[in-house]
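Reviewer has doubts. Consider these tokens.
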Amino acid sequence: NQLRSGIYLFRPQMTPDEVFKAMQTPVRQMVRIREGRWIARAAPTLEEKGVTTKEEYIALANNPDEFRREFPWLPKGIPSLEGYLFPDTYDFPPTLGARAVIRRQLENFERRVKPENIAPDKLHRIVIVASTFELDAKRDEERPMVAGVI
């Protein structure tokens, strides 16, 4: 009854009690996807941690239609999920896979960023402006100046 979904670590020669104890706690691995990391720059971090391959993550992130049914607010016609994959520190255990990683990032975007009742095309414009702002404002004191120009 207490088994949670996740990745578990077992070693040869474990006793039944040790196996039971190992099944109480899934492997946790905190992975930080930094702000300003494009898909291609986040992918090596995920591969380095053994979460997914760079190629799988990049290919799936460049195919937004794979997630549109689950996230109908995603704008149609966008070439990739760039700007929608929320940067944060996540618990991504080894071998989680690209689909689960991207799903968690989109859920986080939806929970923390996406305004209620906004049309997908307007959302895309907001993401573009916000991404431009983040790219141009390198330091906090530059933010008011960049915001004034935008």
User: Anything to note?
Assistant: Residues 70 and 147 are 33 Å apart (CA to CA).
